[in-house]
Design the sequence.
């Protein structure tokens, strides 16, 4: 959902976070073979993942999070948050009006935390539906949020910075990241950040000090995840996923070729799932080798994000707005 915004990196234009919320990620991926490395395919003869459930949603579903048997889905047209059963996808209560421009959502116990593209951080209590603004930074454009053990890290794409938030909600540090800041993820006790062009950097999560990078990856890096002893980076502009050492940022083999406009990755045991927005597909890779595991899974929506749960992989998206469950093989 950030990729149309980030395209401005090539034109030197000002970054406006609300553009990302209205357009979604995708639309300009490159399919040139010289930008990709070959990927071995194996495991095509066994069971394959299947779309086992589709749930219609209203508005423009934007992001999804999971905790304690509950899915949280944010919607960036009306600014609402919906709770759903993580096994069936059935709604739990009515949508909750939360914030005007939700860009990222994270689950924390029975609550959800939303980062707003207008610089607002909001906490929503699931059982009561209570909405509380926990911080507000005028002029900031928060487009990603990482939550871990009471601490938060916020990505401000306009400023190219990341801020660390303590348990009391206070900003304890803010770091301008070399190469800009698009998404963040924890791996190997570091906070990794994708840049605007073709690099990633790692910060000390306690102090914000830049400890690794910028390290080169593919074009248009967006989502990241740790899996199989590596940091995996989705390169939205060249259809690849980079595999890096999560402590040094050095490559661990060649990048894996996936679908068009990969925007998010997630580990699931020995499997790495890759969400391809322009292809409307999920790709499975061996998390240790990067080999492709069978054919891609076709999705009946234009995906915007996904989450791995015990019931399977839930994907949220638009055209038509909905929630899709992909069962494991």
Sequence:
């Amino acid at each position: 959902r950030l990729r149309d915004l980030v395209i401005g990196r090539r034109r030197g234009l000002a970054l406006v976070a609300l553009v990302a919320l209205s357009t979604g990620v995708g639309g300009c991926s490159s399919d040139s073979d010289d930008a990709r490395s070959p990927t071995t395919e194996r495991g095509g003869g066994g069971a394959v993942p299947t779309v086992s459930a589709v749930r219609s949603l209203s508005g423009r579903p934007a992001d999804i999070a999971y905790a304690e048997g509950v899915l949280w889905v944010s919607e960036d047209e009306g600014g609402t948050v919906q709770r759903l059963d993580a096994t069936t996808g059935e709604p739990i209560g009515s949508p909750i009006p939360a914030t005007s421009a939700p860009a990222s959502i994270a689950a924390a116990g029975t609550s959800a935390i939303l980062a707003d593209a207008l610089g607002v951080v909001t906490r929503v209590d699931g059982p009561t539906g209570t909405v509380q603004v926990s911080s507000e930074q005028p002029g900031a454009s928060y487009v990603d949020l990482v939550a871990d053990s009471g601490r938060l890290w916020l990505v401000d794409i306009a400023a190219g910075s990341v801020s660390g938030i303590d348990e009391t909600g206070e900003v304890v540090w803010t770091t301008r990241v070399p190469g800009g800041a698009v998404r963040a993820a924890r791996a190997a006790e570091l906070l990794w950040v994708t840049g605007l062009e073709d690099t990633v950097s790692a910060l000390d999560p306690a102090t914000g000090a830049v400890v690794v990078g910028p390290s080169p990856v593919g074009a248009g890096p967006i989502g990241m995840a740790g899996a199989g002893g590596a940091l995996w980076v989705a390169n939205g502009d060249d259809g690849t996923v980079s595999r890096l050492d999560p402590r040094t940022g050095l490559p661990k083999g060649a990048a894996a070729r996936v679908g068009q406009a990969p925007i998010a990755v997630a580990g699931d045991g020995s499997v790495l799932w890759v969400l391809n927005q322009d292809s409307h597909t999920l790709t499975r890779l061996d998390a240790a080798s990067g080999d492709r595991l069978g054919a891609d899974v076709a999705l009946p929506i234009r995906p915007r994000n996904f989450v791995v749960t015990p019931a399977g992989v839930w994907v949220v998206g638009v055209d038509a707005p909905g929630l899709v469950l992909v069962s494991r093989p």
